Known about the structure:
It comes from Petrolisthes cinctipes (Flat porcelain crab). With 162 residues, this protein is mostly beta strands.
Amino acid sequence: xxxxxxxxxxxxxxxxxxxxxxxxxxxxxxxxxxxxxxxxxxxxxxxxxxxxxxxxxxxxxxxxxxxxxxxxxxxxxxxxxxxxxxxxxxxxxxxxxxxxxxxxxxxxxxxxxxxxxxxxxxxxxxxxxxxxxxxxxxxxxxxxxxxxxxxxxxxxxxxxxx
Length: 162
């Protein structure tokens, strides 16, 4: 009997064990993308803050070329021209224009101020202990209620006959 059950289990596994599991994902599609092709540039020139920088780049397939520049704090302008040509990697040419200018520092000397710790400005504390005030215990205010119903008074007399 056990052999028959084992044979049945092996048969079921052999038939249904090789089926792919159910999947609910979106169908996969693979498309060849077109060769990359773009051309852009941007720049910032703010006289108030002194910011002056920008970039220009273009690409056609595996060939990329461009440049960027930045105004350095010493007054020079650094320009980097670069290209990427498939297998060559990133090749850059760095150039500086203008002359570095360093303003002369104005040295000044001021005698250090003497430190004197502040004088204490407090008085000794006053005694502020209050004497406890004991209130007498509350008196009970309960009084039995007064009846609001007055029983009728009995009167005895002779009946009126007419």
